[in-house]
Amino acid sequence: MDITEVPVSQDNKSKKKKNKKPKKNSESQEGNEAEKKEVEEKMEKSEPAFPPTFSVSEIKNKQRRHLMFMKLKQEKRKQKMQLKKKKKKEREALGDKAPPKEIPKTIENQRVYDETTVDPEDEEIAFDEGTDEFSAYFNGLTNPQVLITTSDRPRGRTVRFCEQLATVIPNAYVYYRRGLALKRIIPQCVARNFTYLIVVNEDRKVPNGLVLCHLPDGPTAHFKVSSARLRKEIKRRGKDPTEHYPEVILNNFTTRLGHSIGRMFAALFPQDPQFVGRQVATFHNQRDFIFFRFHRYIFKNEKKVGIQELGPRFTLKLRSLQKGTFDSKFGEYEWVLKRHEMDACRRKFQL
Amino acid sequence: MMGDRSRLCSVWLGSETGILKGVSLSRKQAFNFCNSSHLSRDQEVRALCWGDPAESELLVGSVDGTVKTFSTEKGAFTETRRCGEPADGCFTGLAALSDSVLVTCGECGKLRVWREDRSEPVTELDAGKNVCRMRQDPVHRHKVATGGKENGLKIWDLERPETPVFTAKNLRDDWLDLRRPHWVRDMAFIPDSDKVVTCTGYHQVHVFDPSSPQRRPVLEAEYGEHPLTALSLPAAGNTVVVGNTHGQIAMLDLRKGLVRGCLKGLAGGVRGLQCHPSQPVVASCGLDRFLRIHNLEDRKLQHKVYLKSRLNCLLLASRDLEEGGGATEQEGGSQEVKEEEDEVWDTMEQVQEVEKRKTTEEEEEPQKKSKKKRKKGQD
Questions:
Q1: What is the extent of the structural domain holding A85?
Q2: One GO CC term of this entry (chain A) (predicted)?
């Protein structure tokens, strides 16, 4: 067989150099090289040497190329497994003295620093947040009251989604849209002391958008809804939720924009949760996707806690945040998602 | 102490939280000029302008109808003047005539001229309802323009305040014979001509020419599909920079109304836009709480400063932006400031990549640049 390991093995080496800490590098590399030399020698004995720049893609016969490529892959995997085993052995041999495991690189912990990250001690931001549109709620002056409606003529899952959303949010009422314009609904809502208007948009019977409008004077957020799972579709779910006010958990809303969005979600629920109900609504932000989950917990003993999902679950992604109540034509936007411009860097997050 | 800081600043911004902010681009520092103990939303800054040609005094118009004078030499507010009631709506424009005569305009359309020694306005004229902006002609300082929603462009001569010098006529009805609504959001006087350029809430840019008998716009251009909120004329001429509520900024050519280029990097709606009087740079601020400075030649982002509050208006000093500006003599004092303001320093960000690329470009093609320059010279 005509295998040339030369370019590949070189490649491997360079990769390892990058990935590993310099201390361990010397050892493992030596071992590695020894192995490789063995392999190469074997090859060289049986096969004539190829020029060092040869690659599998240069083979013109498709079947043969495929075969060679599979072999190459196998070889690579083998090497990798060997290396892994060796490392494990080393760790075991060292026992307690083994160096701590490396933290895997994820795009979250490699996140680009965002200068708008809120410092809790900052006076100016504290003042800005203290006097914004939600301050009435956070000062305990208003109680949330939510109107849920849909796009015109909702079908199928959207209807059930709205109903279930209304069981999660206390003081929420689902109304049929009746073909009314949002700009005409909003003054009526304000007159009836609603503090939120939620509009669920649907596409082909599946909810795909959500407008969250704080009343009486904004802001309005527009989200994309994806992977919505209704109560029926959730496995191992608990009994239907009770009418107790749930607790709210907001995770990872760190930037200035994230704070605004987090405050917006917090103001959806009444401020004093009824702990008897043992229900929690969670908004978890990860990589700008907001995951909603609704759970019931139980303290089994002093150490163990059991949770039960009650549903529904869905994922939100912020599309825009607009100042003032819903006015998509003449409203001023505080933040708009600009695709390809903002998400060009995968390690940059907005929330 | 505050004076040292304020002398450094070359960009001034008014925020929604009522704080006057100064930014020094050369030192990459941002300062707040306010009394942080009693902040209030009533103090929200809606208009900014220079009080004197030497740019040592800054006039700050707040929502509650007061105009404060800020001295950039002392770094403190020196004077507060009451110009109108809060019921008149917030300021849409502020301008200084010669020798401390002040022109204000509120949303209700009352255009007033104030003298320093009197508490009552000297002249008062009605520019109609819902005025969105009042601007002063930088050359003929007694000429001002107003315009707003359902309130077309009007040009006033403050020496003869009885009737407007020029009133724009509404656009011709459209192809369905329907009336076209008016909504002037911002305007500017084109230097070396009588013309005025306006931008509207219906994403149009209009050029009016009072010297011609035509009262309808002589040029109409459209940009984007969202309301245009601000506009500014660069020093180079023939173009206008407009910004809209979605945070899109574009340069439009005033000869044919075509888009010359867009400036990227904004996240939220534009509230204030100003071009530097001599350099090819434009500064923009808005609801996304950032001050951004773009170069108009290569359309690259040069500076991006996070300023913590929503920004309403901005004002550039006419000196070189990058220059320290008068602070060179007192190195000692300013260094103290630097140490103290480390945190502010950290919050600022310079777009370094751009700079790098620029330098490499310069290294690579010094010939091209010189060619360009030569071309400009010929023009």
A1: 6-97
A2: preribosome, large subunit precursor
